[in-house]
Specification:
Elements lengths: L3 H36 L2 H16 E8 L2 H6 L62 H48 L4 H8 L2 E12 L4 H11 L5 H17 L4 E12 H16 L4 E7 L2 E4 L13 E10 L12 H12 L6 E9 L9 H7 L4 E2 L2
Parallel strand pairs: 1-4
Antiparallel strand pairs: 1-7, 2-3, 2-6, 3-8, 4-5, 6-7
Length: 381
């Protein structure tokens, strides 16, 4: 029979052996994992992950303009510089010149001359012979006939003058209306929309499934367009809508909003929409804002066979007093609104921005990324 002290020693030895075996296995696992991870450099892994994210979330931005162009075109209100009318000093305050008593006045003196007798010439009463009137009645009739003919000619001349003036006024009116029609300002509502302080900020967002050469076309268009001029902005807007219309078969989702507001608040609302959409990009790899072109390199990534989406966003600031469009649900509505945007007048466009993601060709968004980042976008009916 084993004694009690020897049994305690055996238990202590077993516990020490178990601890040694556990510690050795743990140290071996740590050293093996460390050696495996040492073979892969951490900066290279981080770079590859960032490149994958950039490939999925790269974004392009192009546009320009400002709502301040409208207020700068009109003459600024100047404060009145008229000084307050000063009260004229009373005549009592003015010092009257003191006349010296010793000096003689320079006014002429009128002396009274002796009266003279005025004799009127005596009238001479000479009787002149009376005139003889021959054919008195005949002359009177001739006079009356002459008077009637002159009055009739005056009335005819007055009528002709009035008719001539009326014709001239009609010609001037026709010329003015023709000039207005040529300038596109024949409608009175257009004058009101362009000259008041009400503007409209609109956003139209379209998702496309694997479009052909869409990203390349948008990049080339944004590079070749001068976004620092009004004509360049209109060209960018029209060509962008044309590119979307050419890819009509790839439309899958749409989001639209348009609100009218005062011009003082339009700039902040427009910037809020732009920043909200740009925050969905991991990095802006292409920008052309007000003529400032900046392009950064993007990493190439393999194409995903599950879903390949590209999202294009148009943000417009126009002089319209009413919203450009309501909620868009169908492809027919989207096509109609794109045609309306493409035919907009140049002087109605204040500001425009084009955003698209991913920016580089061959890079797309998956279903999860589209639904996660663009929660308000709805599928087309």
């Amino acid at each position: 029979m084993v004694s009690k002290p020897s049994w305690v020693k055996i238990q202590i030895k077993l516990a020490c052996a178990t601890f040694i075996l556990t510690a050795s296995s743990l140290s071996y696992g740590l050293t093996s994992s460390y050696s495996a991870s040492a073979n892969l450099k951490p900066p290279q892994i981080e770079k590859e992950l960032n490149e994958q994210l950039i490939a999925k979330k790269s974004g392009g931005r192009s546009g320009g303009g400002s709502f301040r162009r409208k207020s700068s075109g009109s003459s600024p209100r100047r404060k009145s510089t008229r000084s307050k009318n000063k009260r004229p000093s009373s005549s009592s305050n003015k010092k009257q010149p003191v006349r010296s008593k010793n000096k003689r006045s320079s006014s002429p003196t009128y002396r009274r001359e002796p009266s003279r007798t005025y004799r009127e010439p005596e009238p001479s009463y000479r009787r002149e012979p009376e005139p003889t009137y021959r054919n008195r009645t005949r002359n009177h009739r001739t006079y009356r006939r002459t008077y009637r003919s002159s009055s009739a000619s005056m009335w005819l001349m007055l009528i002709f003058v009035l008719i001539f003036l009326l014709i001239v006024l009609l010609i001037i009116y026709a010329l003015v209306m023709a000039v207005k029609k040529l300038l596109g300002k024949g409608n009175g509502n257009q004058f009101k929309e362009r000259d008041n302080d009400i503007v409209t900020v609109s956003m139209l967002q379209v998702a496309l499934l694997a479009p052909d050469n869409l990203q390349t076309d948008l990049s080339v268009l944004s590079t070749s367009t001068d976004t620092d001029t009004d004509t360049g902005l209109v060209t960018l807007m029209q060509e962008t809508t044309l590119i979307l219309l050419r890819n009509e078969t790839a439309w899958t989702h749409v989001r639209s909003r348009s609100n009218s507001l005062n011009i003082d608040k339009a700039e902040s609302v427009f910037d809020r929409l732009s920043i909200g959409e740009r925050s969905k990009f991991t990095r802006e790899t292409f920008t052309n804002l007000d003529g400032d072109l900046q392009i950064s390199a993007t990493a190439e990534s393999a194409r995903d066979d599950l879903a390949q989406y590209v999202v294009v966003t148009l943000i417009l600031g126009t002089a319209d007093d009413k919203p450009l469009f309501a909620k868009i649900n169908t492809e027919a509505q989207l096509k109609e609104e794109l045609l309306q945007i493409a035919s907009m007048r140049e002087d109605y466009l204040f500001r425009f921005e084009l955003l698209w993601t991913p920016q580089a060709s061959g890079e797309y968004l998956t279903d999860e990324e589209l639904l996660l980042e663009y929660t308000d976008i709805m599928p087309l009916a």
